[in-house]
Amino acid sequence: MTCDHLNSLRLIRLEELSCAFTIIPAGSRLLEIGAGAGWQARALAEFGYKVEAIDVHGSRYAEHRVWPVTSYDGRRIPFQSSVFDAVFTSNTLEHVPHIEVLQDEIRRVLKPNGLAVHIVPTGFWRFWTSLMHYLFVVRTGVGVLGFASKSNDDALTARVRTTHSLGALLRKAAFPPRHGERGNSITELWTFSRWGWLRLFARTGWQVESYKPLRLFYTGYQICGAHLSLRVRRRLSKILGSATMVYIARPKPNVASHGEART
Asked: What is the pTM of this model?
């Protein structure tokens, strides 16, 4: 991942954060899950929050960290129950295979009537990322030599390098890879839609109080990268759709683990 790509991503994440945090009072104790390099955790601390940050072992952003991030096993949040005023995730939920377990854990560590704030990709992001996949293929080239190694998408480049079958390589070129842990690039058009996320939150015991697009356009391939300013991305989002939405939710009353009602 190049420095230009990292800087572009950092600016996007900080812009999303500034648009998302308008409801939680400064001074609140907050946990960020999936903190990556800690860009947003540090910004939240600068906004006046008391921040703890965690991420799974082996995060690809670990070497770029600017804020203390505690590693954890991805299942059990390493804090006591009812200690946080808010829990925040940014472009994280789609990468969690055991989403019900994580939602249970978020409810556990939240104080009564605490808030969960989630920034997640949209169906627009999925649609344009799928189209950019083919531009990426054309740009880097497909054939007996495989993809060139110029891509910012380290994971895709690594998968291509380990492919020995030309047929398998061409299949990878023909079908955009999924981004998250469920379904495929087609079904993600639904799971990343507003209706898909609202259904997930309802199923896992949350009452969504508000949601809104964060009004930035970008794709998973970041082919234009740093060449598009935030101002241009905001304008493009009005035409092409916002890449992310923020959802603010509170736990539903009388909901036990895995969405079963308490008796």
From this structure: 0.86
Q: How far apart are CA 151 and CA 177, in angstroms?
A: 15
Residues with Cβ < 8 Å from 242, sequence gap 6 or more?
Answer: 122, 124, 213, 214, 215, 216, 217
Three-state SS at 131: helix
Percent of the chain at pLDDT above 90? 65
Q: What residue spans of the chain are helical by DSSP H?
A: 3-20, 39-46, 99-109, 123-140, 154-161, 166-174, 188-191, 194-203, 230-240
- Give me the phi and psi of 97, to 5 degrees please: -70, -30
Of 70, 30, 72, give the one whose Cα is nearest residue 50. Answer: 30
Distance CA 76, CA 104 (A): 10
Q: Which of 54, 41, 46, 51 lies closest to 10 in space, CA to CA? A: 41
Contact 94, 192 (CB under 8 A): yes
User: Six-digit token pair at 108?
Assistant: 């556990």
Residue 34 has pLDDT above 50, yes or no: yes
